[in-house]
Amino acid sequence: RGNQHTPPWWRPWTAISKINNLTWSGSGRRGERRTYPVMGYLFPDRFPGIKAINPHPVERKINGAYRLYQIFKGMELIRIIREHKIELPSAGRRLLHGLVDALFNETRDIILHLLMYHIHGAETQREAIFQGLLFSRMQEPSTTLSDKDKVSFEHLTKHYFLHSDSHTRHHHLDLLYKDKMIMCKMAIQMLKETIAFRLTC
To answer: Which residues pair with residue 36 across a beta bridge?
Structure first.
């Protein structure tokens, strides 16, 4: 949970290293199955890239973009509870902790799915992770950016998620689904925030 002297705003960023718990399975040269930690193998030059063993699952009505939207709604609920300092009974606290864990697991799985099925090649995968981590770091209050560099997570959620008309929202979610690099950026930021919830719940 971090050193007690670590500034609170920094702990979630250092904790994002838990993305290393993402694993993928592959076959070695002799056919043996191996499990690799994503972050441990993503950056070395010898990393061949993440490749899925099984074919892409049958596309569902709720694809990755729609799942990110559901995660976002869950995160907003947690923020409301925390900002208003709503006291929950023990059963409510257990449900809240369960929601945080579910959001973390779902976000982690989306990132892994993107890397396995949609963002191909070691260099592109490295770039996706690096850009996602950089984007997430830029969301910290202490980060100073010029106006041309300010693309905030809030701006992206407003653009893709916050539409009162469901037809308009579905249209923007379909646009998001077509941009896997933006999806990866948003998912990494959501992963960082769910880790922050985990550390402070």
So the answer is: 24
> What band does 51 get if pLDDT is binned at 50, 70 and 90?
confident
| Cβ-proximal residues to 161 (8 Å cutoff; 6+ apart), any chain | 69, 72, 169, 172, 173
Higher-confidence residue: 144 or 115?
A: 115
Q: What is the pLDDT of residues 77-93, one digit of tens each?
A: 999 999 999 999 999 99
Say how far apart CA 78 and CA 190 lie, in whole Å.
Answer: 13
Query: How many other C-beta atoms are found inside a 10 Å radius of the C-beta of residue 156?
Result: 16
Cβ contact 94:104 at 8 Å:
no
∠ CA 137-98-54, nearest 5°, is 75
Cα–Cα dist 69/56, whole Å: 21
